[in-house]
Amino acid sequence: MSSTDRRETRSCVSCGINIAGTNAASFKCPDCGAQIYRCAKCRKQSNLYECPDCGFLGP
């Protein structure tokens, strides 16, 4: 298995697109600390997101 195969696929938590190689944001959930990824478009539009681990809703 190559390092590329082992790499976790990262997708925007709001719209689901693959964010590899994009201007995306990565931050920890304010409630549970899970890693969250958002694409630039969803951030700019202030689309809501939901933490996949705890259900926290954010702008």
From TrEMBL:
InterPro entries: HVO_2753-like (IPR044720), HVO_2753-like_euryarch (IPR049683), HVO_2753-like_ZBP (IPR011668)
Chain segments annotated as transmembrane: none
Pfam families: HVO_2753_ZBP
Coiled coil location: none
Domain Small zinc finger protein HVO-2753-like zinc-binding pocket: 12-55
Protein name, UniProt field: Zinc finger domain-containing protein
Source organism: Natronosalvus rutilus
Upper taxonomic lineage: Archaea, Methanobacteriati, Methanobacteriota, Stenosarchaea group, Halobacteria
